[in-house]
Amino acid sequence: MSKPKLVVFDLDYTLWPFWVDTHVEPPFHKDKGGLVLDSRGDRVPLLPGSVEVLSSLHKQGITIGIASRTGEIDGANQLLSLFSLDQYISFKEIYPGAKVTHFKKLQADSGVPYGEMVFFDDEQRNITDVSRLGVHCVLVGKKGVTMKLVNEEFTSFSSRRST
């Protein structure tokens, strides 16, 4: 099975169940038990499949990137660090604007052609825009990204490439 060379994830409602610039209050920190909390002391969770997916892809040697339109750039980077997700991520494009801009930079920095990328996002407008570049795009549901979804989409990616 042919696998993508670069897999890119949105953050909000893809890896975690909130908008980092709206629903939580930076700065973030870990409590003594290791839970991530916002400045109000509220727990900040990840979606259940996030660590498993990133860890699995990393172990397979697949390069991982982030493309997020959030205006809360520092908070998003802080959460990636506190959740220890940075260890899996090679490329990050986190700033407001069209995702096409993010992908042009990801392509330039990684050298990976668009046709060798897979992108997971929760917003149809981003899926529509980025798919025009030739990226295999996947709209995630309420559960965010899961291993089941990743495996199904890798099969789809591979079959499209062999036709």
What do these coordinates show?
- Helix content is 34%, strand content 17%.
- With 163 residues, the chain is α/β, with parallel strands linked by helices.
- The chain has a five-stranded parallel beta sheet, sandwiched between helices. Strands 2-3 form a two-stranded antiparallel ribbon.
- The longest helix has 15 residues, at 147-161.
- The radius of gyration is 15 Å and the shape is globular.
- The model has no long low-confidence stretch (mean pLDDT 96).
Helix content: 25-40%
The total count of helices amounts to 5
SSE pattern: EEEHEHEHEHEH
The count of strands amounts to 7
Q: What is the average of the pLDDT values?
A: 96
| Helical/strand content category | alpha/beta
Distance between the termini: 13 Å
Which of globular, elongated, flat, extended, rod-shaped describes the shape?
Answer: globular
Low-confidence stretches: none
What is the percentage of strand-forming residues?
15-25%
Blueprint of the fold:
Blueprint: E1 6-9, E2 29-30, E3 36-37, H1 50-59, E4 63-68, H2 73-82, E5 91-94, H3 99-110, E6 117-121, H4 124-131, E7 136-139, H5 147-161
Parallel strand pairs: 1-4, 1-6, 4-5, 6-7
Antiparallel strand pairs: 2-3
